[in-house]
Write a structure and sequence with these properties.
By secondary structure, this protein is an alpha+beta fold. It has three helices and two strands. Strands 1-2 form a two-stranded antiparallel sheet. Strand 1 and strand 2 form a beta hairpin. Helix 1 packs across helix 2. The longest helix is centred in the middle third of the chain and has 22 residues. The protein is elongated and about 75 Å long.
Length: 100
């Protein structure tokens, strides 16, 4: 096994109605399993709601959009740029005050 892959191993994830083999880092196994569970739950909800009117492909895309939207919202909540700017400004003001 290559040095960079020493912590990788294969798992079989159950996602909705099939199993997917993936090679993952050992320390991320639970994250992958939680992600598979989330996709399965959300896809199942969309399937119940739209199976009679939407294709499986469209239902899968709707599921992806919902999860991606959640991810985008989290990214917006973790934006530190405004705080970085304020901290830089305060640091500059403190340094100026200390010089005098």
């Amino acid at each position: 096994m290559a040095e960079g892959n020493k912590d990788k191993f294969n798992i079989k994830l159950h996602v909705y109605d099939e199993y997917i083999n993936v090679a993952i880092n050992r320390d991320e196994e639970q994250l992958y399993r939680n992600a598979a569970k989330l996709v399965t739950e959300r896809y199942g909800i969309y399937t119940q709601m739209f199976k009679a009117t939407k294709s499986d492909h469209t239902i899968a895309l709707m599921t992806l959009i919902e999860i991606a939207l959640y991810h985008q919202r989290l990214l917006g909540h973790n934006d530190t740029e405004p705080y970085d700017h304020i901290l830089a400004q305060l640091t500059s003001e403190i340094e100026e005050a200390l010089k005098t």
